[in-house]
Design brief:
By secondary structure, this protein is an alpha/beta fold. The protein has 13 helices and 17 strands. The chain has two domains: 131 residues, Aspartate Aminotransferase, domain 1; 230 residues, Type I PLP-dependent aspartate aminotransferase-like (Major domain) (Aspartate Aminotransferase, domain 2, 3-Layer(aba) Sandwich), CATH 3.40.640. It binds pyridoxal-5'-phosphate.
Length: 398
């Protein structure tokens, strides 16, 4: 499929496929001329409840008739409600609402640093992160990832971020010192090519942070809010809860919404004037965020994700077995899966797209599969057929 040569008035930052969608229903998107696509990208893990979910549409519609935006100068009841619910279902005691994942991550950095500052150790500014990490595109977030692809040409890297190898506990402990504020990790690395962190590693990180009196920060922007079959991925590991956590993507179901969650202790230094946002937590976003939680917290919803995950992984095992010349392995957690390719992942994404199946490329030559969380078993079987057709076509043409 040809990449559209011209972005017209738009920055050339995205290499877009020449595809335009008109509307969506459930797990399917439709073009203006009625062509139907099965969506296993879900706006990169954003459209957690697919498209046109009646409960979300109703929540947005009814709120839109009342109030779109008021400033955080005033109380916003939807924030208290969503904040309370997020605290009830997680480790957290306090929540700060944002418009995006990057902003939630920035809030996490500031929360950690400010606590050390307020508790007599202002030199503790370093956030330790892991090779392959992705935390967003703000100057702080690119410095945190340390990936030169993101930092080159944008001036000096913001100080206070240290990267360590992905699975080297000794190097990690060596990196901790008197200037360390926190360790930051994605429980499942997303952009790096779907790399789940084993449960015992998360537990080790938790223990290490306790021992060193530093904060453990999770970036669950992509893997949180049901994506891996638990509400939050860290729940798969016993006793590995963080002190601070960024979420976004899935919690808004398509509405720009993120949040930084923190314990009472971690949030205690974030006093009036230390941080702010104009749009974060506005009434429209809160109406949708609460509606998303209504559905995800329904009895059986997460169990259903675990059931469909089983079918999806069976199908991916079959694909991997049947196409060892094209696919090296599959890996992931829940409905966040990756196919590690032996040929260009972009070529495979396009071949899937030619079969009307949408997926997303990731680092490490991986194709990401991130279907909506309410994906049906029929849709998974349909996706399997499309992948099978695409790969056999590639094989014939090579
Ligand atoms: C997408 C993503 C971000 C950045 O979120 P934005 O909403 O694009 O700012 C941060 N961390 C992870 C793990 C992500 O997947």
């Amino acid at each position: 499929m040809a990449i559209s040569g011209s972005n017209g008035p738009l920055y050339d930052t995205f290499e877009r496929l020449p595809l335009q969608f008109d509307y969506g229903e459930g797990s399917r998107l439709f073009t203006h001329n009625g062509e139907e696509y099965l969506d296993f990208a879900a706006g990169i893990a954003v459209n957690s409840l697919g498209y046109s979910h009646p409960h979300l549409v109703e929540a947005l519609k009814s709120q839109s008739k009342k109030l779109w935006h008021v400033s955080n100068l005033y109380e916003i009841p939807g924030q208290f409600k969503l904040g309370k619910r997020l605290c009830e279902i997680s480790f957290a005691d306090r929540v700060f609402f944002t418009n995006s994942g990057s902003e939630a991550i920035e809030c996490a950095f500031k929360t950690a640093r400010r606590w050390h500052y307020a508790n007599g150790e202002p030199e503790r500014i370093d956030i330790i992160t892991f090779e392959g990490a992705f935390h967003g595109r703000t100057l702080g977030a690119i410095a945190a990832s340390g990936n030169e692809k993101y930092t080159t040409g944008f001036g000096p890297k913001a100080p206070g971020f240290i990267q360590v190898p992905f699975d080297d506990f000794d190097k990690l402990t060596d990196a901790i010192g008197k200037t360390t504020a926190a360790i930051l990790i994605e429980p499942v690395q997303g952009e790096a090519g779907i790399r789940p962190i084993p449960n015992n590693c998360l537990r080790n990180l938790r223990e290490l942070c306790n021992k060193e009196s530093i904060f453990l920060i999770y970036d669950e922007v992509q893997c949180g809010v049901g994506r891996t079959g638990k509400l939050f991925t860290y729940e798969w590991a016993d006793s590995a809860a963080p002190d601070i956590m960024a979420i976004a993507k899935g919690i808004g179901g398509g509405f720009p919404l993120g949040a930084c969650l923190a314990t009472e202790k971690a949030a205690s230094a974030m006093q009036p004037g230390t941080h702010g946002t104009t749009y974060g937590g506005n009434p429209l976003a809160m109406a949708v965020g609460n509606a998303v939680l209504d559905i995800i917290l329904e009895e059986g919803f997460l169990e259903n994700i675990q059931r469909t995950t089983l079918l999806l992984t069976q199908k991916l095992a079959k694909i991997t077995n049947n196409y060892p010349d094209l696919i090296q392995e599959f890996r992931g957690s829940g409905l966040m899966q990756g196919l590690k390719c032996k040929i260009s992942n972009i070529k495979i994404v396009r071949a899937f797209c030619d079969q009307n199946l949408l997926t997303a490329p990731a680092g490490n030559n991986v194709v990401r599969l991130l279907p909506p969380l309410m994906i049906s078993e029929n849709d998974i079987c349909d996706a399997y057929k499309k992948m099978d057709a695409a790969l056999s076509k590639i094989r014939k043409s090579d």
